[in-house]
Every structure is written in C-alpha cells, then in structure tokens.
Amino acid sequence: MNSHAGAVARRLERVRAELAELDLEGLLVSRLPNVRYLTGFSGSNAWLLIDATGATLLTDGRYGQQAEEELPRGAGFEFLIAPDGVLGELVVEQAKRQSSGSRFGFEGRHLSFAEWERLRDVSLAVEWVAVSGLVEGVRAVKEEEEIAAIETAARIAATALAETVTLVEPGVREADIASELDYRMRRLGAQRPAFETIIASGARSALPHAATSDRSVREGEFILCDFGAHWRGYCSDMTRTFVVGEAETKQREVYELVLAAQSAARSALRAGVSGAEVDAMARQVFAEADVEERFVHSTGHGLGLEVHEDPRLGRRSEDRLESNMVVTVEPGLYFPGWGGVRIEDALVVTEDGPRALVDLEASELQALPL
Amino acid sequence: MNSHAGAVARRLERVRAELAELDLEGLLVSRLPNVRYLTGFSGSNAWLLIDATGATLLTDGRYGQQAEEELPRGAGFEFLIAPDGVLGELVVEQAKRQSSGSRFGFEGRHLSFAEWERLRDVSLAVEWVAVSGLVEGVRAVKEEEEIAAIETAARIAATALAETVTLVEPGVREADIASELDYRMRRLGAQRPAFETIIASGARSALPHAATSDRSVREGEFILCDFGAHWRGYCSDMTRTFVVGEAETKQREVYELVLAAQSAARSALRAGVSGAEVDAMARQVFAEADVEERFVHSTGHGLGLEVHEDPRLGRRSEDRLESNMVVTVEPGLYFPGWGGVRIEDALVVTEDGPRALVDLEASELQALPL
Fold first, then answer.
1. Residue A314, min C-alpha distance to chain B (Å)
2. Could you tell me which of B111, B22, B45, A133 has the C-alpha nearest to residue B119?
3. Which has the closest alpha carbon to B40: B81, B10, B83, B85?
4. Interface contact flag, B186 A187, Cβ < 8 Å
5. Cβ neighbours of residue B105 under 8 Å, at least 6 residues apart?
6. Interchain CB distance below 8 Å, A315 and B130
7. DSSP string of A218-261?
8. Which residue of A has its CA nearest to B315?
9. Helix crossing, B113-122 with A113-122: angle to 10°?
10. Contacts by A52-61 with C-beta closer than 8 Å and gap 24+?
11. Rounded to an integer, what distance in angstroms lies between the CA atom of residue B192 and that of residue B36?
12. Quick one: CA torsion of B178, B181, B187, B191, rounded to 10 degrees?
C-alpha cells in the first residue's frame, strides 16, 4: 500500500466511525470534493458508494483511464463506468444490490431534490437518511501533508503578489493586474488560481466580492487584491489592500482598524474556541469604533480542497476549532462610494494558538499595504 | 428602460409564458446561471423568486452594492439582503407571504434535498412543484447580443491559441503551454478562461478530460488543447489536437477520421433536427471504421453563460435544435497508452444549417493541427 492508499484508507476509516455513530451501514457521497478526499479521484463527475464491504467509485466514460491511475491500489476500491448521461441510473443499480432494510446515509445538502426522488422511488430496499457535514467534518481537521500543500499554495500566492505589485502604477487596468498575478502563480507552480482573482480599485474596493473589471487604477486609490493558488488540489486564500502612492489619513485609519480587528481575531484562534467567538473578536473592534455595520460578511472559513469549507468563523457559527484546522481570518470595512479594506491570512489552529502559513513579517509584503 | 432592462424583461416574459403553461404562479430560481440570465446579477450567492406581481432577488451582505448596480432599473425588480448564513431563511420568509394555495415551481435538479425539506416544512401556504429545464430551455435559444458575446469569446480563444502554438517545442511543459494560453486570452480581453484549460500530451491525450500536468512534450507526440475564453459572462469552447513536429501515418489516419466525423456531425446541424441525430452522424463515421467504442463521450453541448448547457448532442438526447442555439461539435477517438484526438468547434444553428463562430478556414489555425 503506497502513502496515497494509506491516506485514503485512514480517511475512510474516520468516515466509517462517524457512520457507525449514526447507525448507518453506508454512505452515498455525491459532493465532488468529498469524493476526491476519500478516493484521490479528481475527475469532474463521480459518486462514491461506501457500503459494508468496500467502496465503489462511479464515473463516466471520459474518466476510465484516470480512475485507473488515480484510485489507490490495495485499498478495497472498485470503480464502475457508466455510459454518458446515465450515472444516476448506475447509482440506483448499485443501491438496489444492498440487502433489504439497510440504512444508508446521503448528503442532504449535496443531493438534488430530483436525484433524491429517483433514489427514493427506485431503491426500495434501502432506507435513505440525510446526513449533513459528515465528510466535511472529517476534512476540516487536516493531515500533515494537507497542511504542507496549503502552505505551498500560500507561498506561491504571496510570492506572485510581491512580483506583481512592482508593476502597479496609475493607469494600469485591474484586469491587467489580475492576469499578471495569475500568470505568475502558474509560473511558480500553481495548477491554477484557487478562485477568480479579485482586483478592485477605488470605490470598487467597497464591493466585498467585486469581479475584476477593466477599470484603470489611479493615484491615491485603494487596490484590494483577493486571490489564491491551487496546488495539487489544495487552495490558498489571501487578501491585501494597498494604496497607489500615498495614503490619506482616512485611508490609513480604516486600514489600521481592519488590521486591529484581524489581529484580535487571529489571537483568539485556538483549539476549543467556537467560530462565533473568533468572529466576535473582530466585530468587537469595529463596534468600539462604531463601524460594525460596515463589516458585511463573516470573519473567516476553513481552507483545503475547497476555498470555502468547514469550519466557519461567523456570527452564528457553533463550529468548535480543533488542532490542525486551517482557517482564514479576513475582516473588512466597506464604505459604498468611497472604498473598502480587507486583510486576510490563512492560519493553522493549534493547542497554543495560531500559526500563520506565510510568515509575512519576514517578507517584503508586510510593508506593502499602505 | 435601458437595453439590459429590456433584455431581462423579455426573458422574464418568456419564463412567465412557460409557467402559465404549467399552471404555476411563480418560480423559485436557485440555479445561479439562471438567476444571472434573468436579472443580470453576477454575484456568487443569490436566489430569485418570481411571483405573480414581480421578481425579488435575494442575496447576502457582500453583494448589496453590486445588486444595486447590476439589477436593471424599471424592470420591476426588488432585491433583499440577508445577513450572512441565513439566505435560505429569507427565501422561506418570502415564500410565506404568498397567498395560501399558490402553486410555485422550483428547480428540482438545482435545489438540494435539505433546501427542499426546509421549504416543504416551513412554507405551508405554497404548493411546491419540481420543474426541470424550464429556464434552461429559454436560455438555449440565444439573442443576438448573446451570440455576439460567444463569438467574441471564441475569437479571443482562437487568436490566443495561434499565438501560443508558436512557443510549443519539445521540452516545454503542458503547464507552461496552459499558462501562456490563459495569459494571452486575458490580455486579449477575456475575463478568465471559461474552464480549466486542458493541455494533454503524448499518451495523456487519450484521457478525454485530463488535467494539465507538468509533463514535458516530446517530438512526434500529440498535443490536445481544449480551452475557452470567458467574455462578459459568456463562454467559448474549442479543441485542437496537433503533433509536435512530423505526424506518423497512424496519427494522421486517426486525425482524418475524427475530422470526417466532425464534418458529418456539423453538416447535420439545422433547426428541427434532434441532438441524437447529430450525435449519430459522428458515431456512424467511427462505426464504419470499426472504432466506435473509442469514442467515449457525446458529440456536443450548448454553450452560453455556462460552458455546458442545453441542448445536448448525445446518443439519448431528445433535445430538438432551434435557430440561434449555439452548440459545440467535438467528436474524439482515444486509445489508452497511445494517444487521442479531439476536434471541437462552436456553431450557431440556423434554418439552413450551421454557421461556425470562428471562420477557421480563413485563419492560420486551419493548417495548425498536423
């Protein structure tokens, strides 16, 4: 058994333990990143049926050779190829083979109503039970290799930004900055950007999730850069906001406030703390300055195979932090018509506190924003 | 009313006509590209509730300003902002306001079981009816501006490929070719690649949806390039397969066969024909050469706001082609361990036959493959 096979066998074991708690004999995994986590298969169309005896990957004809190559040897995996368009039917076929009265879980938030209806109508032998966040909970606590992969992605992104900012000057378009940044991440080894790079300048920086536009940046304006690299399946996520040229007093004040909120939330990161508690630390700083209502999103989220995953650091989050979770901390303030600031870093949760994935204090990027 | 407002008003009218046929008073649109099509809103988290009197966009706090900017004026749109994490609750609140006994559609293939369960349990006044492909059917027939946008995306992609192939020589990595191609599409005006660019060389070209790897290309090998540009929301999609240096006889034979299949399928494109009939034209060419089983996917798909949309050109497709649909035609042959060839173009369906989006016969790209 190679190390990939070892990793997926351990993950499957953790999932089986969760299933046993819920008195379930198996699980139909329909959420693609969960399928990838449990099998290593990276194709864009697949389901995984975990039953009492093993696990069967179901995919379509485009992915036969890839399934052969990516599935671990000797870990009890089978795979089946469905002719195009009928993957759902193959899933039903497999479900029908289970013994009568079996209780199987399915991912209630990642199975469509139409797919569920078909399972319900056709596979009478199985009792289907919606589960929520089961595989995601296992994924939230990272293995060493996973943290190393996110760290590599984060370093690539930070290095690419340091290269790109040297090109920023009045008159350059947001779209040009984004394409230079993405190009550099690729040249540095990223498979692709982890998500669509956001470069938002001037008043557009007040749009927390603006799409990059063709607008040219001007002297004295904010430029908000939210971006990440995708490396061997894992995502990084980072935001920096800086000013082209000299910052005005108000720009500096808003920036310092966001930095203070980020610092407060970061310092709260520790195994045992809830997502809501971390979020409250950032929100408290803004409340004291009477700008709480200008912080229009949550404080952070887990990072891994997906750019947004568990745990959530938000007002209502009951997620409890554990060692080796990787999360972003990204408070921001947005003033429509004027501009916005967001500062985002990714950190590993430990028993003793947070560990930043990229040591920015040692890099030229510390001095960059403002 | 500006032209954007006019376009969305017309689209909404087409959807209302479909709803009336099904005796439905409204529709909950949960599929994001459908929301974008019907409102112009391009954020990543939104629902649209169409009811008897108007249409309400529901999104979260990150997108307040963007909704303000993107929603058309004077077209009867409202929007509501939900605090983070509770968008589903806001949808339920809106549903509760409908009069008792109303019949509303929801998108059965794009609402999760968990979301559906919540609607069912909470909004008792409304009878929820699953619909399938309703907005997608309206989207499949393109307006003039939409065809022009896809055409622009297709030109950008073709020009970027022509620039990139001049850099291909033995020793260059697949990943380098992909990053150069993506970079050039961006410089030519694309907002981003329409999907993850596939560059697959040597035996990897036999993986119909291979991810680009770090492998270096070698003299005499196939390089399969499947890529597209994203321009103002619209996608292009194109595949070219060529050989580094001189092609061998078998490479040339396989290529000619795929080209013949593509040509046969293209010539069948015409309003009134079914997706299955177009698919059969390509398959027939392969059957005559006794290699049908090496064509492991379907012949093509619609192209628009998404890179794969209706209509489908596949063995089982009952979709009927109409004028102004835009589809890809992309047969391929794949020989595991040896290599594969796919040739893909996008075409507009008319009453009289197909119209290619990029006139490759007039460009240097015609001579490119082999």
1. 8
2. B111
3. B10
4. no
5. B19, B22, B24, B26, B27, B28, B128, B129, B130, B131, B134
6. no
7. -TT-EEEEEE-EEETTEE--EEEEEESSPPPHHHHHHHHHHHHH
8. A84
9. 90
10. A52/A25, A52/A26, A54/A78, A55/A12, A56/A80, A56/A94, A58/A82, A58/A87, A58/A90, A58/A91, A58/A94, A59/A87, A60/A84, A60/A87, A60/B297, A61/B208, A61/B296, A61/B297
11. 18
12. -60
Pairing assessment for the beta strands A103-107 and A127-131 based on DSSP bridges: parallel
Best residue of A32, A112, A177, A187 to probe chain B, by most B CBs closer than 10 Å: A112
- Residues contacting residue B296 through CB under 8 Å, at least 6 positions apart: A61, A62, A64, A84, B208, B334
Which residue of B112, B131, B319 is the best one to mutate when testing the A interface, meaning the one whose CB has the most A CBs within 10 A?
Answer: B112
> pTM for this structure?
0.88
Which residues 169-188 in chain B show a CB within 8 A of chain A?
Answer: 175-176, 178-179, 182-183, 186-187
- Rounded distance, CA B182 to CA B161, Å? 9
With vertex at residue A12, the alpha carbon angle to CA A8 and CA A13, rounded to the nearest 5 degrees, is 115
CB A217 within 8 A of CB A244: yes
CA distance A329 to A299: 6
Query: Hey, is the C-beta of B113 within 8 angstroms of any chain A C-beta?
Result: yes
Interface residue A106 vs chain B (CB under 8 A): yes
Domain ranges (residues) in chain A: 3-140, 144-367
Is it true that domain B3-140 has CATH number 3.30.470.20?
A: no
* Kind of pairing between the strands at A103-107 and A26-29: parallel
Q: What is the ipTM of this complex?
A: 0.85
Q: How far apart (Å, rounded) are the C-alpha atoms in residues A123 and A101?
A: 11
* Residue whose token pair is 């409908």: B98
Amino acid letter, B38: L
CATH fold of B144-367 reads: Creatine Amidinohydrolase (3.90.230)
B120 part of contact set with chain A, CB < 8 Å: no
Question: Per residue of chain B (370 residues), what is the pLDDT tens digit?
Answer: 456 788 888 999 999 999 999 999 999 999 999 999 999 999 888 999 998 878 889 988 878 888 888 888 766 778 887 765 556 777 777 777 777 788 999 999 999 999 898 888 776 778 899 999 999 999 999 999 999 999 999 999 999 999 999 899 999 999 999 999 999 999 999 999 999 999 999 999 998 878 899 999 999 999 999 999 999 999 999 999 999 988 999 999 999 999 999 999 999 999 999 999 999 999 999 999 999 999 999 999 999 999 999 999 999 999 999 999 999 999 999 999 999 999 999 999 999 999 999 866 544 444 445 5
Question: Contact at 8 Å (CB) between B350 and B263?
Answer: no
Contact status, residue B122 vs residue B92, Cβ threshold 8 Å: yes
* Host H or E run for residue A309: strand A309-313
Residue located via tokens 């490479």: B251
Nearest partner of A208 among A278, A298, A288, judged by Cα: A298
Closest C-alpha to B281, from B298, B305, B306, B304: B298
Contact B114 A130 (CB under 8 A): yes
Residues A20 and A134: their CA atoms lie apart, in Å, by 12
- Structure-token pair, residue A64: 């036969």
* Residue B182 CA: distances (Å) to CA of B155, B170, B195, B211, B366: 14, 20, 10, 14, 21
